[in-house]
Design a protein that fits this description.
Elements (H helix, E strand, L loop, with lengths): L23 E5 L10 E4 L7 E5 L5 E5 L6 H14 L2 E9 L6 E12 L2 E11 L10 E11 L13 E14 L5 E5 L3 E12 L2 E12 L6 E12 L4 E13 L7 E7 L2 E5 L4 E11 L9 E11 L1
Antiparallel strand pairs: 1-4, 2-3, 3-4, 5-6, 5-18, 6-7, 7-8, 8-9, 9-10, 9-11, 11-12, 12-13, 13-14, 14-15, 14-16, 15-17, 16-17, 17-18
Length: 305
């Protein structure tokens, strides 16, 4: 959280400069790139007391005109500011890809703080035989980014972070007869660096990682790009990721293969918290090759809470 006066003007102009100089920037997320264009969830109150703006990656600004009688409201806003920065959502997808036809529930959480940010998600597949179908697989990714001391004051590297990540999961299936089997997705530890890349209005969070999989003799690499881009004046939302990594081939562990996976999503916001849309998963050699390209579409529901 930061405190400053007067409101800053972004490089090259921008919407932040629209705030009157008599307004104080009373709270912001721990690291706000001022070149972003905000999406206003609401503007000035009838008494012109404060305004709130939300940016990509859940950065935020709160401006307020300060009068002596407003000390308590300002303190309340400062207490609530860290809560506003959190982003949690629940998604329910129906997968109608080839030979799939099942539901997947996803829980996501992103939270920035003064040291960096935390992100995790859990996918739950409901494809175990029976009526109704029960949960057949669970997959978890948990990651943490840390700002690097000594680089925050360097404009070229102030957004560079140290990234650590852990992935794991398992699945259950009906074996021959009435026996049930289970299998692990193989846990994976990743570490490396993360840095945003701005392309026009789009901001990609890029990650350059060393990938250490259980049972693999040699570490692999992974490149990840993540995006979060409002469109149509805030009524639409483009999110998703693309992963490219190397791994040992099952048919010849002495050789490597490249795996490609991307899951772009589009959401239309019915309300600020409820959206309809879906995703298209495109992959090759996933989870292991050799495998051809696959396209797996879904229809979904998203609830921000």
């Amino acid at each position: 959280m930061s405190f400053m006066y007067p409101p800053p003007t972004p490089a090259g102009g921008g919407q932040i400069s629209q705030y009157p100089r008599s307004y104080f920037l009373i709270a912001s997320s721990s690291h706000l790139p001022f070149t972003y264009s905000p999406i206003h969830l609401f503007t000035y109150s009838p008494f012109h007391l404060f305004t709130f703006s939300l940016f990509p990656n859940n950065c935020f600004l709160i401006f307020a005109r300060v009068y002596p009688c407003m000390k308590k409201p300002i303190v309340l806003l400062l207490i609530l500011a860290p809560l506003i920065a959190r982003a949690q959502n629940f998604q329910l997808h129906y997968d109608f890809g080839e030979d799939r036809r099942f539901w997947t529930a996803t829980f996501e959480m992103f939270r920035p703080d003064t040291l960096g940010s935390t992100f995790w998600f859990v996918d739950l597949d409901f494809d175990f035989p029976g009526k109704p179908r029960s949960m057949s697989a669970a997959y978890l990714e948990f990651s943490r980014d840390f700002y690097i001391p000594g680089l925050r004051k360097n404009p070229a590297f102030d957004q560079l972070t140290l990234h650590i990540e852990y992935n794991d999961g398992f699945m259950a299936y009906r074996d021959t007869g009435n026996y049930m089997g289970a299998a692990s997705f193989n846990n994976i530890f990743l570490t490396g660096f993360s840095h945003p890349l701005k392309i026009g209005r789009l901001v990609l969070t890029t990650q350059w990682l060393c990938r250490i999989s259980r049972g693999m003799d040699v570490p692999d690499f992974q490149f990840t790009a993540v995006w979060f881009q409002p469109v149509f004046k805030g009524r639409g939302l483009l999110t998703g990721f693309v992963d490219v990594w190397s791994q040992d081939r099952l048919d010849d562990p002495e050789k490597k293969e490249l795996v490609f996976q991307t899951e772009p999503q589009f959401w239309y916001l019915l309300t600020p918290k409820i959206a309809l849309g879906g995703e298209v998963e495109i992959n090759r050699n996933f989870p292991f090759g050799p495998a051809e390209w696959k396209i797996l579409p879904t229809l979904g529901f998203r609830w921000e809470f």
